[in-house]
Amino acid sequence: MTAPDPRTQPRAFLEHLYRAAVHRALPLHNTASFLPPPPRGRTLVLGAGKAGGAMAQAVEALWPQDAPLSGLVVTRYHHTPPRPAGVRERIEVVEASHPVPDAAGLRAAERILELAQGLTADDLVLCLISGGGSALLTLPADGLTLQDKQRINRELLDSGANITEMNCVRKHLSRIKGGRLAAACAPAQVVTLTISDVPGDDPSVIASGPTVPDTTTCADALAILGRYGIDVPAAIRKLLESGALETPKPADAVFAGQQVHMIATPQQSLEAAAAAAREAGLDAHILSDEMEGESREVGKVHAALARAVALRAQPFRRPCVVLSGGETTVTVRKQPEGTPRGRGGRAGEFCLGLAQALQGQQGVWALAADTDGIDGMEDNAGAFVAPDTLQRAVAQGMKVDAFLSRNDAYGYFSALGDLVVTGPTHTNVNDFRAMLIL
Questions:
Q1: Nearest partner of 370 among 296, 432, 295, judged by Cα
Q2: Is the peptide bond before 140 cis (omega within 30 degrees of 0)?
Q3: Do 358 and 219 share a structural domain?
Q4: Are 293 and 309 in a shared domain?
Q5: Residue 199 sits in the same domain as residue 319
Q6: Per-residue 3-state assignment (H helix, E strand, C coil) for 344-382
Q7: Do 55 and 187 belong to one domain?
Q8: Average pLDDT of 15-23?
Q9: 64 and 187 share a domain?
């Protein structure tokens, strides 16, 4: 597809780069070379994540039609793509809540654990894992209720904890995460196909690593809970303190001979966007696919770089595109009682911080969006920033500082008509950020 002219259609051009990044991460384009041959026994597909429906359909399309195939995958509500013509349904796909788990996710996790029982060494388990699986595959540890898990999850999401910290806690409060699903599948061969949504592409962090060994400990989980002031029931705290909720470790025999394949990563998607920019005649620079930190502060750092390029052509020459990925965080600010909670996610808050720091810098446009098409819990993927963003907002009586103070990026960019709305993309390689500097 021909790229829009970045000089006359900057927003459309940035959206084109986003689509290139998402396209690179779609499961059907990345699965075939990682599929093992059919086993002597049966093939069971289990999985969880925002890309779960698309990953299941890719396996159905690519697996030999005369070879047995069955299983169950859980994905987020409204994230199951339309079934391609001619692809026969052999894997059940169910939907559940994200980012806060619900009863549907609990039922799905229980069923997945049941399906894993009674397998033999002749059987193959294909595990399809993608970001979002931590919430979708919820099976609380004994003594912990679903309501407990929901509260802890909400508090983790609001705390500013990074994804590695959050998933360390989730693994130790679960009966299926942190390698426990792999243990349940023994002695079958387990092959895990993963789409990474985490900085560093660590498979033990993606969806809280249900099929891979865990190097974190109960003591680590307790330290994280203490760091962010999150309470757990007294009985669970005692189990953590005693090590009774420890996860399977790398030396555990259940992981011998198992395979893990990373079929799509954030870096690959950023490289696809960079290639699309270069095809349009622009220099493209990838800062990193592992950026973490407070979204608004990361936005300010990006703004400083963009201003340096725009004003001094340093460290990059104009015109150019600057790309980054990773997983930033949002610490939700407490508001006076009765004040409506702000709406928005990481991408929107990044754009608020970016716009605030750019101060209307001429020649700079930016787009930030989540590659799954959903920014937090809203219906937008992200937002767009232009040189006149602050000016248009002030004309409507909106001050960026006020919206930042209540974490209301959605309200700000919605009023400007600058939300980026794509709908679910059926993949997930996390944050995508692009700045166009002319």
A1: 432
A2: no
A3: no
A4: yes
A5: no
A6: CCHHHHHHHHHHHHHCCCCCEEEEEEECCCCCCCCCCCE
A7: yes
A8: 98
A9: yes
Q: Is there a single domain that holds both residue 260 and residue 272?
A: no
Q: Which two tokens stand for residue 151?
A: 């509260």
The total of other beta-carbon atoms located within 10 Å of residue 337's CB is: 5
Give the pLDDT score at 338: 67
Task: Using the structure block, give the residue that is written with the tokens 């060994």.
Answer: 213
**Residue at token pair 């005693």:** 242
Whether residue 46 contacts residue 126, with contact meaning beta carbons closer than 8 Å, is answered with: yes
Verify that 223 and 298 share a domain, yes or no.
no
Q: State both tokens at 128.
A: 């399809």
pLDDT tens per residue across span 162-181: 999 999 999 999 999 999 99
| Residue 231 CA, distance from chain mean position | 25
Q: Are 199 and 265 in contact (CB under 8 A)?
A: no
One domain, residues 32 and 150: yes
| Domain end residue (candidates: 264, 296, 313) | 264
195: nearest Cα among 111, 85, 75, 84: 75
- The region, left, alpha or beta by phi > 0 then psi within -120 to 50, assigned to residue 388 is alpha
CATH number of the CATH domain containing 375: 3.40.1480.10
Please list the helix, strand and coil fractions of the chain in percent, rounded to the nearest 5, in that order.
Answer: 40, 15, 45
Residues 105/77, Cβ–Cβ less than 8 Å? no
**pTM score of the predicted model:** 0.94
Cβ distance 112 to 46 under 8 Å? yes
Q: What is the average pLDDT value for the chain, to the nearest integer?
A: 96
Tokens 């409507």 sit on residue:
396
Give me the number of domains the chain comprises: 2
Residues sharing a CB contact under 8 Å with residue 40, sequence separation 6 or more, in sequence order: 122
Under a CB-based contact definition with an 8 Å cutoff, are residues 400 and 296 in contact?
Answer: no
Separation CA 400–CA 379 (nearest Å): 21
What is the distance in angstroms between the CA of the first residue and the CA of the last residue of the chain? 22
Domain enclosing residue 70, as ranges: 26-264
Beta bridge partners, 262, equal 194
Q: What is the dihedral of CA 417, 423, 429, 433, to 10 degrees?
A: -10
For residue 134, what are the contacts with CB-CB under 8 A and spacing of at least 6? 166, 167, 170, 177, 207, 208
Single out the residue in 248, 264, 280 at which a domain terminates.
264
For residue 340, pLDDT over 80 is answered with no
